[in-house]
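For the sake of clarity, the format in which proteins appear in this thesis is described at this point. The fold follows as a row of integers, each naming the local backbone shape at the matching residue. One such record is shown here in full, so that the layout can be seen directly:
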Amino acid sequence: MRALFALFGAGAGVAVLVLIGGLRPRPRPDRPGRGERRRALTGVAALRIAAVLGVGAVVGAATRWPVAALLAAVAVWALPRVLGPDRGQQRTLARVEAIAAWAEDLSGTLRAAAGIEQTILETATVAPVEIRDELARLTEAVRAGIRLPDALRAFADDLSDPTADMVANVLLQASQYQARDIAVGISGVGRRARRQATSRMRIATGRARVRTATRIIVAVMLATPVGLAVFAGDFLAPYGTGIGQVLLAVFGAMFAGVIVWMVRTGQVRDLPRILTGHDEQVVTP
């Protein structure tokens, strides 16, 4: 009988994964230099799927509760990403810092009376690692003879960052309208990017406190039923009935809703982009 419930738990975990996979948007085509990263992510996803199925099967066999197996599988899949380190925010901060450094380098090189295209080619070789791949594609486009406005718009789309849009917009203004004192404009963008990075760092500190509180709440909520199952199994016996399974599913959904709400309270929307398509007009500051 336990084997049957273990099989049911594993099947429920697979069903949840299939549902999540079906709701996810299709990934964009691979860009150059990202094949190895994609393969590494595929390996990590395979390990996560194995962990989800294993935990779901163990919980289903131990409790004989299909809802518990399903909730355990969902928890193993979702909680590490929700409660783990916010690597996305860290990458965003590092990218803003890199864009600010590149803008400052652009300003200094332009003051030396270098042209825009030559400045991009020179600064791309010593750009920060966080944006070096995108700048490499920009320099390849410039060397291939692609019009600079088109290359800059593709570069902005590649980075997909509001700060990068500001830098690209100033360069677009200079390339299309022969703007003067472009070095001053780029220098101002660099200073603004630095201020944005500082502000985002303060926001990230506040978000870290929210994530710490979320981790504590989740740990207590998960440790409580485990402790009751080990030391007071009779207390949880009513959940083995049909009505008990329904209530367990309701409580699990409520718990998931609270976690989602707490995670969203720690999220801050980024600034809107000003270059969002190749056919848009250049935004005048």
